[in-house]
Amino acid sequence: MRAKTRPNQNLILSCVDNSRFSNHNAFIQASCLLLALSWSGTVFGQAPTTNTPPPNGPDTPGSRRTRNRVRPEANPATPNPDKPASETKSGDASSTDKDKAKDDAQDKPRQTETKHTLTLNGQRLNYTAMTGMMPLKDTEGKTTAEIFFVAYTKDNVTDLAKRPITFSFNGGPGSASVWMHMGMLGPRRIKLKEDGGALPPPYELVDNEYSLLDETDLVFIDPVGTGYSRATKPEDASQFYGLSGDVRSVGDFIRLYVTKNVRWLSPKFLIGESYGTMRAAALSGELANRQHMNLNGIMLVSTVLNFQTIAGGEANDLPQVLYLPSFTATAWHHKKLPPDLQQLPLTEVLKQAEDFAAGDYNHALLLGDALPPAERQTVLRQMSRFTGLSESYLNRADLRPTLSRFAVELLRDQNLQVGRYDSRYTGYVQDRLTETTESDPSYDAVASVFASTFNNYARTELKFEEDQPYEILASLRSWNWGEDNGFVNVADTLAQSMTRNPFLKVHISCGYSDLATPYFAARYTFSHLRIAPELRKNLILDYYAAGHMMYLNLPDLKKSKTDLTNFIRSSYQH
Q1: Could you count the other beta carbons within 10 Å of the beta carbon of residue 467?
Q2: pLDDT tens-digit series, residues 83-107
Q3: How many other CB atoms sit within 10 Å of the CB of residue 219?
Q4: DSSP alpha helix (H) spans, 67-106
Q5: Is residue 124 helix, strand or coil?
Q6: CATH classification of 89-307+490-569, choosing from 3.30.9.10, 3.40.50.620, 3.40.50.1820, 3.90.950.10?
Q7: Which of 171, 221, 306, 449 could pair covalently with 275 via S-S, beta carbons 3.0-4.6 A apart?
Q8: pTM
């Protein structure tokens, strides 16, 4: 993971909470939904020092049988470099016995199994849901953390070497896996409006006819600090709260699951969203280099691998160029473009916006203060056409409208702001003079729905009981990005993995209405991997109308099912 020349990096892409926002010269906080990428009033994401803390039903349960399984733990996981493996004094027998009893209890993970049936493509599919905690251990056998997971496996598979398995996680850092689990991939999904909007409570679960379970077994992972996953000792949690420790612990979980369930020969896939795409790219190196485990494919949903593409400021104009087409898509949706553009299909409008952004607009930003007045006026006219903002406003913004300001300015005449995770959504603005967003209406619409539904689902259908809170978005304030004075960038790790494993394929899902991880930034990143020309055929980009969680929009969910099915089938030998 190579560092670029950019100081003060602590940008977070959570797949969940976006309720607090910062002002001038503040930093992007957030998340994968998810979520809290701050909408600064003057920069896209200028951040403080590396380790500065951020401000991301009526259904009948489908279970026919439930039983507890106890499995012994094997193989050490992540050690804590800052503490000895045991803090017990050698002469304290009582303390030693207590620690041993505690470790013995943690050696026996709590897991439940339930049996279910789902109809996909007209075919009856019987499957098992395993829900529980996986202990991670250090080199001396001490349990350092427990990772919560839900695994769905197709029943009566005779040859596991030909049955794919996919490991799924969301973003944050700090987001649980509930979003793709209950909104996209799993056998049960939350019932929403067709456009992804929430229905009033009580919320309802339905069978997910667009689940990928007919193509692959699915394992949903909640990294340490999210969901029910916790470090054994709170004071030791910091070893997991950083890019390196996070990737290592999730890699250890994958190794343990694959080993315990005899899946080493199965075709293996990862799918991550938001910051989870960064985790997935880094895992491609972690699994290959440390575990000698090659992957068949990686699916990246709303991706960011290089923070230089979204974290702007006085020293970095690149995000301005890469965000502009997403501003155009937003203005087009809300009918704020000139009539000649508004009447065109979105894809045709975006092609013009992309050409302008990469051409005249990029050139103007490169010239900076040396831009001639006449050329500046020409650029302002074009910017106004493609953003829906007035020339005078864009001039005051010095050709650089920030994400937060765009969100509140586009519909100011209606006292509305647009959503960050999905700019199709709007919310009322109480402070009519504000220059920054007050919340994210696209997050507000679904957060409670997912939290409430999963808490009920875990107990009623998965038969897993846990009294501690299920953290859909934990506030991991001491996250260590590990890139001193530079942009975090794992694109090089992915490029290296693709080079060393030429069978590795990558699918990228981008939402036109996503203002957290803009689609043009993703395209830029994957156009700069510097991989061999013959490997570029292993990169597949697909685009969707909605935003960060495009799968909440039913037409996009249907398209995603088709796109990912084709991708998985093309990535292994049947």
Answers
A1: 5
A2: 333 333 334 445 555 555 555 555 5
A3: 23
A4: 93-106
A5: strand
A6: 3.40.50.1820
A7: 171
A8: 0.83
